[in-house]
Amino acid sequence: MNTSSLSHMNRLSSQTPSIRVLLLLTAAVAALSACSTPRTTPATVVDRSRIDAPTSTATVPTPPGYYRVKRGDTVLRIALDQGQSYRDIVRWNNLTDPNLIEVDQLLLVRPPAGKMTVKPLTSAATAATPPKMADQRMAEPAPEPKLEAVKPDAPPPGIRLSWPAKGKVVEDFIDGKNKGIDIAGKLGDPIQAAGDGRVVYAGNSLRGYGNLVIVKHDNTYLTAYAHNRNLLVKEGDTVRKGQKIAEMGDTDANSVRLHFELRVNGKPVDPLPFLQ
């Protein structure tokens, strides 16, 4: 072998490590590219969420007159918050089992068109007036209206209630905290209906209320009487203002008291301005 051939072989030998390094680097780059390729593809869950979003019940508005069931709801609680009889809600929605309602289920909470659940009670003064007398008064010239000062604490028109129990108010109405007033008394003190109406619930199935009576006065006003020792009326009974409907107690309470609520279209309001 001549000198030039030996020199050529020496050059190839000296380049072999560089070639090996180059091949290793190429393989490493290819491997990294293969691993990083899935990261450049959009996650499929994003696409599925876009497809499912329009059908989500959370984005569908609740129709007027309906209520969308939330976790923890009961038909009785919904009825109280909507100012309705729970039996009416069961009937309007054809519920075979009132204890089986589902989250996001739509319930009709207003009477179907043309129907009234409770006929408004006619006052004694109106009922005692013969129709002919009413017609004669309408035909007579109306007297000139008298301007009278309006008292700041005058109750809103619509209903006037009597006190449901005798005793000291120990808890006032606080919007969002206490939905009524609490009246202290002695065990067994009489609880009286605050107005004419129909008993739409009498029982102890509503947590936090103990033995409870709910009276519906018309399609707007409803009163609730909680923590009673004994209930003296049942569902469907017609009651009159001042009638004894229960005895004061301490069921689901830390002391003997009456928790009294007034609901206007289902919304709790301060009952004090309505009490005579």
Report on the architecture of this protein.
The protein is of the alpha+beta class and 276 residues long. Among the domains are: 59-108, Roll (Membrane-bound Lytic Murein Transglycosylase D, Chain A), CATH 3.10.350; 169-274, Glucose Permease (Domain IIA) (Distorted Sandwich). The protein is 26% helix and 21% strand. It has helices at 3-36, 44-52, 75-82, 86-92, 124-128, 131-139, and strands at residues 66-68, 106-108, 169-171, 181-184, 190-192, 197-203, 211-216, 221-231, 238-239, 244-248, 257-264, 267-269. Strands 3, 4, 5, 6, 7, 8, 9, 10, 11 and 12 form a 10-stranded antiparallel beta sheet that branches. Strands 1-2 form a two-stranded antiparallel ribbon.
Which descriptors apply to this entry?
globular; 276 residues; 21% strand; Glucose Permease (Domain IIA); Membrane-bound Lytic Murein Transglycosylase D, Chain A; 26% helix; two-stranded antiparallel ribbon
* Overall pLDDT metric: 77
Largest sheet: 10 strands, antiparallel
Class of secondary structure makeup: alpha+beta
Low-confidence stretches: 35-55, 116-153
Helix content: 25-40%
Number of helices: 6
Radius of gyration from the CA trace?
37 Å
CATH class of one domain: Mainly Beta
Oligomer: single chain
Fourth CATH level, the homologous superfamily of one domain:
Glucose Permease (Domain IIA)
Content of β-strand: 15-25%
